[in-house]
């Protein structure tokens, strides 16, 4: 018997199937991790099939060295999925398999020592004779069982003390396989009686699940329309029919509140995968799925690979979110596409959901590729009332503050009424940059081509790309002037001004700077929900998953920040963000108000947000996409060439460009193809590396895949890095 093995070496010449002999008696299965001999050493490999025959000369074939785990990591469908990823994203087979595999698998199963008290009363004489032992037992009376390591640490004791207590039979020490992460006991919730539109959606998807066929849905439901309850009831149906379900959510909406909603319905049948888990913890969750301990996984991007044997349903919440794409690492996969492929392989049902679907998804729904399900109404409450304020008018009337008169008076009213307010601004720090009033000098990051952001609290200038910091100076380093100007605003500035105008208001801020510590995100959320603050200021972290009834006012300090990014999706992003943020207002009995401040009140993104009208936005935006042939009317590919010498980077970018052109010119089919560049990337330098890019647009994705393959197998000087992203969501 022979095994076909993919080896763990990342290069294009080893990216193929190797054949090994299975030694007599070895119980090898497809999908196992193995160690194999490879050029004088042993390396890791993955068995993708087992055959009886081979065309290789048998005497030249080496034996599998050993099996690494006592189970198979990939089933055949997962191997199939990896094959698809390798071809679709142009990565190595081993990279695709390793993406599917849980990080942490290499550590193996984790067993810990547990200590349990074995007597009901502590012998009196122990107190005098062995006070340390007494202390341990005394502690165990309150807390037993406990991990040995924890006990030793808390009481600062020697292991010998445990040994002697164990010998006397006062305690028991045993090994236990632990699941490092466990969901707390949360009160169980019952299914709600569905509203008409919810009922319709559930019934329809249920029908597909019963038929065991691959089907795709777009659940297009306004904010607060009860999408989550639809998910819960679909999952329930799925479990009842003996199958399992995956729910993907973006990291920022994986809030305690969201987790609570799933756990309260399905109890310990749920595993949660968030990015804060350690590799070991991730592996634990993976094993729970593998061993059939849970039926539901709620998690971020890579939860799409949860190894259920009988998958019935994948739900993708907030499907428009860009975090479903892995942009920073190979393979640059999109969990939405992987989910679709996985459902196809498993005959499962895919439900993508959003209040603001991505243009691509909605376009597919209009073409019938996804079945459209709609939730048009909020549950029991009405949509918030939205007003747009033009900040140029405010300036013209002499108001130079960051708050319009309207927003200011609403904040004041809300404070009086003891109702809560959310203020949103998608930029952290105090001001986006500082400049000298006399010579115009702007401090920039020495490593990146980007101006430094001023952070008021610690009086420092910070680079938001590489983290570089320097102290803010009182004088201009170029001309010595003391007249420093603060331009552009950030969340810290908003907090500062709120405190200035409303000194009695209790304020919380939620952004990258205030949530660095583990658990701080949760704390801010709970403090705000329980009414410990009147105003919450935040970046897009607060735009999702917040369902707080007492929030009746949402203020968008400046909508233009995302609108002006050099990206063809900036209008879409702005509309999505504004709709999501506005959706946080008036979710309880009291009606909600939203004030959007902007300098561009006539922009269709802002107008559509004002009327909360997705279709209006879509109809406008899709016209631009068609005229300029952007997705969904084409596929893009971004090739970034980076290196330390800009001249060299520029030359290689030119070579890449020429090669792309050659390939396109030779094409037989007359699809639309366009090559843009070579040009410096919008962020020209990051971490001391210069970046140039070539962007391709094509109607035919296969053309891009071909080019990707050629570009990636070309030879480059040592310091040059090439990054290829097909269907990128970010081209900065
Ligand atoms: N059928 C129902 N009957 C009563 N209450 C419901 C029903 N369905 C949902 N709700 C409640 O309505 C509120 C809004 O629902 P939910 O949060 O599920 O909406 P959503 O569409 O997921 O919102 P968003 O996309 O804005 O986060 C929740 O408090 C939920 O418990
Ligand atoms: Zn100056
Ligand atoms: Zn930097």
Task: Please characterize this protein's 3D structure.
By secondary structure, the chain is of the alpha/beta class. The protein folds into six domains: 2-100, PriA, 3(prime) DNA-binding domain (GIY-YIG endonuclease); 110-178, Arc Repressor Mutant, subunit A, CATH 1.10.10; 196-375, P-loop containing nucleotide triphosphate hydrolases (Rossmann fold, 3-Layer(aba) Sandwich); 385-428 and 490-626, P-loop containing nucleotide triphosphate hydrolases (Rossmann fold), CATH 3.40.50.300; 431-488, no CATH class; 635-726, Alpha-Beta Plaits. Helix content is 33%, strand content 23%. The chain is built from 22 helices and 30 strands. The strands form seven sheets. A seven-stranded parallel beta sheet has the order 11-12-10-13-14-9-15, with helices on both faces. Helix 1 crosses helix 2, helix 1 crosses helix 11 and helix 7 packs parallel to helix 8. It is globular. The chain binds adenosine-5'-triphosphate (ATP) and zinc ion (ZN) (2 copies). One zinc ion (ZN) binds at residues 445, 447-448, 463, 465-466, 468. The site of adenosine-5'-triphosphate (ATP) has 17 residues, from helix 8. Residues 208-375 form the Helicase ATP-binding domain. InterPro entries: DEAD/DEAH_box_helicase_dom, Helicase_ATP-bd, Helicase_C-like, P-loop_NTPase, PriA, PriA_3primeBD, PriA_3primeBD_sf, PriA_C. Zn(2+) 2 binds at residues 445, 448, 463, 466. Component of the replication restart primosome.
Termini separation: 51 Å
Shape: globular
Q: Give the percentage of residues in beta strands.
A: 15-25%
Report the mean per-residue pLDDT as an integer: 89
Largest sheet data:
7 strands, parallel
Name of the CATH architecture of the largest domain: 3-Layer(aba) Sandwich
Which percent range fits the helix content?
A: 25-40%
CATH superfamily of the largest domain: P-loop containing nucleotide triphosphate hydrolases
Numbering strands along the chain, what is their spatial order in the largest sheet? 11-12-10-13-14-9-15
- Total of DSSP H or I helical runs spanning 4+ residues: 22
* Count of extended strands: 30
Number of domains: 6
């Amino acid at each position: 018997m022979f095994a076909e093995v993919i080896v763990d070496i990342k290069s294009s010449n080893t990216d193929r199937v190797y054949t090994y002999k299975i030694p007599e008696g070895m119980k090898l299965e497809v999908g196992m991790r193995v160690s194999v001999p490879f050029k004088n050493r042993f390396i890791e490999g993955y068995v993708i099939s087992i055959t009886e025959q081979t065309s290789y000369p048998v005497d030249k074939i080496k034996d599998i060295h050993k099996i690494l785990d006592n189970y198979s990591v990939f089933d055949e469908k997962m191997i199939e999925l990896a094959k698809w990823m390798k071809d679709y994203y142009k990565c190595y087979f081993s990279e695709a398999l390793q993406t599917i595999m849980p990080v942490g698998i290499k550590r193996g199963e984790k067993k810990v020592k547990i200590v349990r008290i074995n007597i009901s009363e502590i012998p009196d004489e122990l107190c005098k004779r062995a006070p340390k032992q007494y202390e341990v037992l005394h502690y165990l009376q309150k807390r037993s069982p406990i991990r040995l390591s924890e006990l030793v640490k808390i009481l600062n004791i020697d292991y010998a003390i445990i040994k002697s207590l164990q010998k006397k039979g006062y305690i028991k020490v045993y090994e236990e396989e632990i699941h490092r992460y466990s969901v707390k006991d949360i009160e169980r919730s019952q299914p709600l009686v569905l509203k008409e539109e919810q009922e319709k959606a559930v019934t329809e998807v249920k029908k597909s699940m019963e038929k065991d066929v691959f089907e795709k849905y777009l659940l297009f439901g306004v904010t607060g329309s009860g999408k989550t309850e639809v998910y819960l009831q679909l999952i329930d149906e799925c479990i009842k029919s003996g199958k399992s379900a995956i729910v993907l959510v973006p990291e920022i909406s994986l809030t305690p509140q969201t987790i609570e909603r799933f756990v309260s319905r399905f109890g310990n049948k749920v595993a949660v995968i968030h990015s804060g888990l350690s590799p070991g913890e991730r592996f634990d969750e993976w094993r729970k799925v593998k061993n059939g301990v849970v039926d539901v996984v709620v998690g971020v991007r890579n939860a799409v690979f949860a190894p259920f044997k009988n998958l019935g349903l994948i739900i993708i919440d907030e499907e428009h979110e860009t975090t479903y794409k892995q942009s920073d690492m190979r393979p640059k996969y999109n969990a939405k596409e992987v989910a679709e492929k996985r459902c196809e392989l498993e005959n499962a049902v895919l439900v993508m959901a959003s209040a603001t679907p991505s243009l691509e998804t909605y376009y597919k729904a209009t073409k019938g590729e996804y079945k459209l399900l709609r939730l048009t109404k909020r549950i029991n409450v009405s949509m918030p009332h939205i007003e747009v304020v033009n900040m140029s008018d405010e300036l013209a009337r002499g108001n130079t503050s960051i708050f319009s008169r309207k927003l200011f008076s609403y904040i004041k009213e809300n404070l009086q009424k003891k109702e809560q307010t959310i203020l949103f601004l998608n930029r952290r720090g105090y001001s986006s940059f500082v400049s000298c009033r006399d010579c115009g000098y702007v401090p920039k990051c020495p490593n990146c081509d980007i101006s430094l952001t001023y952070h008021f609290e610690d009086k420092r200038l910070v680079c938001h790309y590489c983290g570089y910091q320097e102290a803010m100076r009182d004088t201009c380093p170029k001309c010595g002037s003391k007249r420093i100007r603060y331009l552009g605003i950030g969340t810290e500035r908003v907090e500062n001004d709120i405190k200035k105008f409303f000194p009695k208001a209790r304020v919380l801020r939620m952004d990258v700077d205030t949530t660095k510590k583990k658990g701080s995100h949760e704390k801010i959320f709970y403090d705000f929900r329980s009414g410990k603050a009147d105003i919450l200021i935040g970046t897009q972290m607060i735009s999702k998953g917040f369902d707080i009834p007492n929030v009746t006012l949402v203020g968008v300090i400046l909508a233009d920040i995302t609108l002006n990014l050099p990206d063809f999706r900036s209008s879409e992003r702005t509309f999505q963000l504004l709709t999501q943020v506005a959706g946080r207002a008036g979710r309880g009995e009291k009606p909600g108000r939203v004030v959007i401040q902007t300098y561009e009140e006539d922009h269709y993104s802002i107008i559509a947000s004002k009327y909360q009208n997705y279709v209006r936005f879509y109809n406008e935006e899709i016209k631009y996409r068609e005229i300029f042939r952007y997705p969904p009317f084409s596929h893009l590919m971004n090739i970034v060439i980076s290196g330390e010498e800009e001249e060299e980077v520029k030359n290689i970018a030119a070579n890449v460009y020429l090669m792309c052109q050659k390939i396109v010119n030779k094409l037989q089919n007359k699809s639309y193809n366009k090559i843009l560049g070579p040009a410096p990337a919008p962020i020209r330098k990051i971490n001391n590396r210069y970046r140039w890019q070539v962007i391709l647009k094509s109607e035919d994705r296969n053309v891009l895949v071909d080019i990707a393959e050629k570009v990636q197998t070309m030879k480059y000087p040592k310091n040059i890095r090439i990054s290829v992203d097909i269907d990128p969501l970010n081209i900065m």
